Amino acid sequence: MGISALTPPTKPEDMIETILEFPDNRLLIELCGEFDRNLAQIEHQLGVHILRRGNRLAVIGEKSGRDQAAAVLRSLYAKLEGGRNVAAGDVDGALRMGRPVSPAAEGEQIELFNPGMELRTRKKPIEPRTEAQKAYVANLFQNELGFGIGPAGTGKTYLAVAVGVTMFLAGAVEKIVLSRPAVEAGERLGFLPGDMKEKVDPYMQPLYDALNDFLPAKQVEKLIQEKRIEIAPLAFMRGRTLSNAFVVLDEAQNATSMQMKMFLTRLGEGSRMVITGDRTQIDLPRGTASGLAEAERILKGVKGVTFNYFTAKDVVRHPLVARIIEAYDRDEAQV
Q1: Does this model's pTM top 0.70?
Q2: Do 150 and 157 meet the contact criterion of CB atoms below 8 Å apart?
């Protein structure tokens, strides 16, 4: 890559610089980001100062912060050399993972998941941004039934749909089936107008959003018309056998025990199933047990079933979302 690092040995520890040299000035500009916002993000997260001197960046601070900042900058530059873009989310992902996200490193990561299988969609490649997300995606490739449990914004559904699209495009499955309970989130919305599709689509919108992030809108529409992608409420799954499909049940905390058992037993030959949910956002009527909690208790230890858990540290939405979740968790712990 033509990047070198020189660490002058004579300055006090907190003033030592790590000098990184980047031969392509155009890529360096992209690395720094508009108004140097990528550098500012790294500085804020790692407690270092980054100064630009021509085609070099000087990283100033304690050794641990310098080393991590240097690794993040090198990996992001390598990503740019590979023809990829670098956005704020990529910087955040590199900081969270604590290791390079260069194309070569991505190859190692994907091989861990499943040889020859990549998280690549028609619109953009998808990368896990935390260790928990990495383990989750690995389990979705390797096991027939996986659970993703944790707070909102941790990528449970997004990554599950990304894996489903990846397997579908690779021919590993013939169709994608996305479902969620049609349960109102603490509100009484009354009767919705329109036909059945128009009535349930508002509940399914997050699944449409995820699909449209990975596939062109016209292709999504065509695949839905051909029944190669199905998006339907949980109640519509009764009596079916879902074979050669990638199946996702979202918001599973709002499935009753009976619904959960019904859904789990839809699994057919050649299929993968993912159940996602947040135990803190149950919208079922008072006194109705969550099927997600029951399935978690009953299926622990069953061969072929995996559980992945997420915390506020895995939130990849706005940083304030993580702080909000942590505040609620602290409050519940005090009750």
Answers
A1: no
A2: no
